[in-house]
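Objective 1b. Sequence-to-structure analysis of MYND finger.
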Amino acid sequence: MQPLLKWLLVLAVVVLGWLWWRQQRVPRQRPPTAPPTGPAAPQPMVRCRHCGLHLPAGDAVRGRLGPYCSDEHRRLAEG
């Protein structure tokens, strides 16, 4: 066999092997992306009975007389 023909045959085998390998491998899948979420729903606001601060009702401290922004303000206002 001529040297040039031998190298062309080796190159053809390598290229065909690479193409076969590339076709057989599993394509990478991107991780699923979460759908975009809109802004959070508005929460009802309450006013601290001691200092007048407005805060979400879920964050307020409940006292006998109403909502407060902290335990300290509840203690100061209710004794």
